[in-house]
Amino acid sequence: MTIFFSIEIKNKYIGISDILTRLYKTYCLGIALSYSYIHKPFSCSRSLPNSTFDRILRKISGFNEGKPSHFNIENDLFVASFLGMSNSGDNSDFNTISNITIDIAKVLDSVLFQNIGELKSRIEDSISSLNSITINFLVTDRIYNEKVSANFQKLFGLTSLEDCHSSELGKSFREFASTRYWQARSRQPVSIPFKQDRIRLLVHIRRGDRVWVELPDKTLLMHGDELLIVDNSVKYSENNYILSSLSSSLPNKFRKPVSVDVIKEVIEQLFIEYGRSAFSMIVISDGYKRAYQELNYALRSGKIKLSQSEKKQVNLFFQQQQKEIIDFAKSVNAELILGEDSKVKFMKSVHAVVCADFIIKTTGGFTSLNRLLRVQDSPSVFLGTSDLTPQTLEVFLTEARHFRKPYGS
């Protein structure tokens, strides 16, 4: 029996790096099972730029006798189209093949498999005997469950998108994704303000879905549309020890965002090593608009309550934080791509990440697109600042010293 596989990513509100991570894991699984891949386009609503103009068009286009309009379909596939992944290729012959949907995370969450043969038998035992069939692997949030992750690690050695260089399976997906991306760039070039004769330095400041607003009596912690209100008068403890900071007792998603001052210190070290003129620099940030909208929605819906004085302090906080990013970019003489309300900004941000030589990031997986899509021989040098120590900074600077810019890149 000939078995093909496709991937359906079930998502409500996940971003581009999360989409690609799920695609990566499941693609490698299907190839390891010796199945043939049929690409299925995906939508990515979290990373979809949400301008006022687009929202109006979407609303107008929705009144179409309940049928999806051309604009809405095209808009939903915008991210996949930009990556070169909005078409299935020449798969017309596969439309007549029987198909079955399998929730792959549900299978992997049921038992720890000892080898790929066990998993293959488990999957194929549920399939009727046919000449050919397409398995549609449904991928849900359960893909990150502990037992599922343990199975991926044991069977395929896969953990994250950043590992795509470390195995033949990963390299296979990287070739698929990067080929499609650069074919898309040949059809739709993206202009970014990197100078070709300099070291291309990119700073990614994630802010849109992670916020700490410190008020006199309480602290508002945000992650996406999740909101946590902490009473500042309460002492937080763990294993009977008083914690030195609230951040120590929180899940990672609610940890305090990295301050711009930390990034400044790293940039200053690089400038001391190389001199400012060695770099062409871009700062990208989603800014605070999305977080501000989520907080206002929580206030309007009664999810949280703030006094008028606290509301004013919150408004001032967002204004100051947005200005801090702008001032930082000016202080280091960098080009700034701020906000996620335009398709042009999204395209420039992704392409800047892919083309960067040095990447300094706060949190999140957005910059992992560089590992997947960059095709230059010299790998980029990365520094994450969420848990920065003198040791990790020195490792970064050492790797930076050994970096050799590819000629003409």
Structure summary:
The chain has helices spanning 16-32, 52-62, 70-76, 78-82, 104-108, 116-124, 146-156, 168-187, 260-274, 289-300, 308-331, 343-355, 369-373, 390-402; strands at residues 2-9, 36-37, 98-103, 132-139, 199-205, 210-214, 218-223, 226-231, 237-238, 241-242, 279-285, 335-338, 358-361, 381-384. 31% of the residues are buried.
Secondary structure layout:
Layout: E1 2-9, H1 16-32, E2 36-37, H2 52-62, H3 70-76, H4 78-82, E3 98-103, H5 104-108, H6 116-124, E4 132-139, H7 146-156, H8 168-187, E5 199-205, E6 210-214, E7 218-223, E8 226-231, E9 237-238, E10 241-242, H9 260-274, E11 279-285, H10 289-300, H11 308-331, E12 335-338, H12 343-355, E13 358-361, H13 369-373, E14 381-384, H14 390-402
Parallel strand pairs: 1-2, 1-4, 3-4, 5-11, 5-13, 11-12, 13-14
Antiparallel strand pairs: 6-7, 7-8, 9-10
Helix pairs in contact: 1-8, 2-3
State the domain count: 2
| Structural class category | alpha/beta
For the sheet with most strands, the description reads: 5 strands, parallel
The amount of helix comes to: 40-55%
Alpha plus pi helix count: 14
Based on CA inertia axes, which overall geometry fits?
globular
Q: How many strands?
A: 14
Average per-residue pLDDT, rounded, comes to 85
- Weakly predicted, low-confidence segments: 237-244
What is the CATH C-level name of the largest domain? Answer: Alpha Beta
CATH topology (level 3) name of the largest domain: Rossmann fold
Q: State which percent range the strand residues make up.
A: 15-25%
Task: Name the quaternary structure.
Answer: single chain
CATH architecture of the largest domain: 3-Layer(aba) Sandwich
Distance between the amino and carboxyl termini: 46 Å
